[in-house]
Amino acid sequence: MFTALPDLALRTLGGAVVAASDESFAEKESLIRPGRPGFSPATFGSKGQVYDGWETRRRREPGHDWALVRLGVPGVIRGVVVDTAWFKGNYPPHARVAAASVEGHPSPAELLEAHWTEIVPLSGLKGDAEHHFEVTDDTRYTHVRLDIHPDGGVARLRVHGEARPDLSLYGGLGLDLAALANGGLVTDCSDAYYSAPNNVIAPGLARHQAEGWETARRRDGGNDWLVIRLAGRGIVRLAEIDTTNLLYNAPGAVALTGLDGEREVPLLPRTRLQPDTPHRFRLACPDPVTHVRVDIYPDGGLARVRLHGHLA
């Protein structure tokens, strides 16, 4: 399911709602907030019931409302979720999604004049529901436009896909080869019982346990693991393994193995970890790899994994 892929529009990834036709009842910025939409009944402000979403006024003239979203990370869009949570008598009956590729730092006016490609055709919506739309388009996009017909409220817009940032900016420089924002992706893991494994390569620091990756308790004598596809084939020089916020459920140890085709390259032998601690390890292996397997022993959670190095 495409929802296992990162939400490229997420505010915590750098996404932004740069413009909207109207936001009379509820602010456009809510569209890309992390987490599920909240709701408290009978919380009225000067504009009516307070909603955790984007809501426009009732249109009295022809046309429809729209919002322009800059993706936090450009990429290939695999699916879109239009969530009308809590909007029951004021949701739009139809929506459409288009995408554009506009490099640099365009203004809202320039975006409105850009070439837009329809990735989700005009589709019916229901109130207080998530609507999943698969996208079959391999184009790299930087922005999306949500059109609602004719007006109403949408709680969240999720744009799931594969990051395709412009790494030419890092020519001759080091970078975090694992970072989701640079094109890294967790492609496999042993367990994701408590939280999503892609959290470990998200930007910034984890504020609490749920913003990292945490597995169930193992009872079989094995160990948990995940595999990170790097932003590009590269040489990893420094590993950061962060167990911040994991006081009683951090792994006892970690090991790192580089993967390059069928070849396995030891990067870090099994090494003890401490709870609630950022760990940094210099790596001596000069061989380039495309993926890194992170083994934790026996189970537990990691807040972040950073793999600094150079593209090969």
UniProtKB/TrEMBL annotation:
<dbReference type="Pfam" id="PF03561">
    <property type="entry name" value="Allantoicase"/>
</dbReference>
<dbReference type="GO" id="GO:0006144">
    <property type="term" value="P:purine nucleobase metabolic process"/>
</dbReference>
<dbReference type="InterPro" id="IPR008979">
    <property type="entry name" value="Galactose-bd-like_sf"/>
</dbReference>
<comment type="similarity">
    <text>Belongs to the allantoicase family.</text>
</comment>
<comment type="pathway">
    <text>Nitrogen metabolism; (S)-allantoin degradation; (S)-ureidoglycolate from allantoate (aminidohydrolase route): step 1/1.</text>
</comment>
<feature type="domain" description="Allantoicase">
    <location>
        <begin position="14"/>
        <end position="163"/>
    </location>
</feature>
<dbReference type="InterPro" id="IPR005164">
    <property type="entry name" value="Allantoicase"/>
</dbReference>
<keyword id="KW-0378">Hydrolase</keyword>
<dbReference type="InterPro" id="IPR015908">
    <property type="entry name" value="Allantoicase_dom"/>
</dbReference>
<protein>
    <recommendedName>
        <fullName>Probable allantoicase</fullName>
        <ecNumber>3.5.3.4</ecNumber>
    </recommendedName>
</protein>
<feature type="domain" description="Allantoicase">
    <location>
        <begin position="183"/>
        <end position="311"/>
    </location>
</feature>
<dbReference type="GO" id="GO:0000256">
    <property type="term" value="P:allantoin catabolic process"/>
</dbReference>
<dbReference type="GO" id="GO:0004037">
    <property type="term" value="F:allantoicase activity"/>
</dbReference>
<keyword id="KW-0659">Purine metabolism</keyword>
